[in-house]
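Teaching note: in complex prediction, the entire set of molecules is handled at once rather than each chain in isolation. The prompt given to students was simply: 'Predict the structure of this complex.' The entities are:
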Amino acid sequence: MSFSRLLTRSLALSLAVIAQTALAETLTNAGEIVERANVAAYYAGDDGRSAARMMIVDGDNRQRRQFTLLRKDVSDGGEQRYLVVFSRPADIRGTVFRVEKKIGQGDDRWLYLPALDLVKRIAAGDKRTSFVGSHFYYEDISGRSIDLDTHELMATTDRHYQIESTPKDPDNVEFSRYQTWIDRETLLPMRTDYYRDSGEVFRRMEVTAVETIDGYPTGTEVRMSDLDSGGYTVTQFRFSEYDVGLPDDIFSERSLRNPPRDWLQRD
Amino acid sequence: MFESITQTRMTRWGAWLLGLLFTASVAAQSSDSLDWGDDESWGDDPWASEDQTWQWYGFVEGAWAERINNDPLIDSDQTLAESRLQLETERAFEDYTVSAKADFWADGVEDNAQADLRALHLDTTLGESIDLRAGRQVLTWGTGDLVFLNDLFPKDYTAFFSGRHDEYLKAPSDAIKLSWYGDLTVDAVWMPRANPNRFITGERLSSFSPRQGRRVAAPPKLDPLERDALIDDSEFALRLYQNINGTEWAGYAYKGYDKQPSAYDSQRDRTYFPALEVLGASVRRTGFGGIINAETAYHFGADHAGDDPNLPNSQWRFLAGYEHEPATNLTLGWQYYLQWTQEHEALIESLPDAQKPFATDEYRHVVTNRLTWQVLRQDLTLSMFTFFSPSDADYYLRPRAEYRFSDQLTGSVGGNVFGGEDDWTFYSQLENNSNLYARLRYQF
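The expected output is the structure of the full assembly:
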């Protein structure tokens, strides 16, 4: 590890410690809690790299997905760039997915299909559809814009802020509202329950493991359950790193055809 | 006679069954484990560690396509009856990556065993901003969906029409590709000898011959003069590309040979691949809640004046497309394509009277539609691709249902259905090749 990198990392670490100390205070504003939870869950560091694997379970049927995720923030809580490089299963190995996440307008998305050497541009479409066949939606992976819902602080317990969110445009989503339990210390959303109009919970996200990586508390195992069917997907993140210094130009067409090996390689 | 037909049939069924059995037996062996397995190293990523070895991948596939109509010109009732093995390997050395991919199959339609080297290339980066790929490779560019204006890389229409997987539409090129990434991306491809399409030879599929005024098939198979002189038969392709705030602009140039044997040498009574130059441009961006694209290309045909019936005329080609998601998990794509033959009057005048009716229209319009519906959380994909030409009054339908049984096993059923008013137009000439297919693939 280079000296400057070591310096950056220890600096980030001490900043995180300061931030956590500051967070010992109790927050009371739902908007502020949601904003900070969004940053904690999706904007840790200026950039990040992580290997991820998914186990998709439907009764007896189990499917796997494995990919490496590169992310760079344009601004905290704002635009982001993603590069997702798949290594498993065999039929999608080498497929690369690139997203320019926008706020208040459709994302720009590209998909590279290696067998045809085809760079396909994809319509932004509904973000609440399955991400690569898993129980996670695109929106669960890259974050749901906090402006799409109104948020209310329902309760503050010893460990959690309990937030209820109601969609501003209920016709665009499959739920009537959702409740999130946000860890008071790390500000990570630890559990989200999605409700039907009838008041029944039909979908649940749970963070089942948290590790502090480079000073940032990180959900390293997340489970998304379909409570109707009993099916679920577990996603594990490993080899996560933050503030790796990803250059802007790796989020480009070049990386679709030729994934940036140097930046994908684990330390 | 009877015996040999029976034998052929049995070979066909044999090839198909063999593939199916092999697929099933391999599928049975691999039981999905409940846990992640013990691969704590997550070793599947090729960049998992510095310590590199040869990585192996592949699949076995059984494929069968039955003709809907009897083709009086071709004995076989199938356009496809095969068991296929694909093997792929890749290894990274310091600054280089070597990749190879080869297909081997028992072909029940042609009654033989075949092999095809689909990739063998070396990749490296020169300096900071140049990527080099040298060797046999699949190349694609342009904005069309199954419609190609500036993509003058070889296609395998025989595979595409006969029921093979979409990936076989692209045939590999022997090429050196240099990509320079600066403010602008420059892709330059040199093919040391011509890489023509895998065109319809008449062995598997029949097509219309304007010179004979009827549909034809092998024997004799279409056997054009080859363009295989190294260096002398070189082809060049160039693309300039820039993404400006999400709007993708590209310019294209090509100097080489027609991918189809579109010219005729009357003295030798052989077809051949005439010289072709192409200039074009495209733009693609988000718009109207989806993706919009436009592309144009001018094909400088070998016959500028248009008065030589044995050479192709120049053409302007235009494409406009729009793709969006009108409902969750439903994607809808539309394209309008125009092929404008230049000096059309001269072409008609120069043709012998018998061939005049078969000449392409001055304006050939094609509308395409792609409908994709994903259900069962993407395990089942239902799709329909339609080509329809109002000017030729013909069509080509590609329905398909594809199901993922597991990460390894995928099954597809679908069809290639051609039809139209006249025997000689682009799609309707293929009418007797209409087929329904089934494929089962096991990946490893």
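Point out the following to students. Chain A has a mean pLDDT of 90. Residues 180 and 192 of chain A are 4 Å apart (CA to CA).
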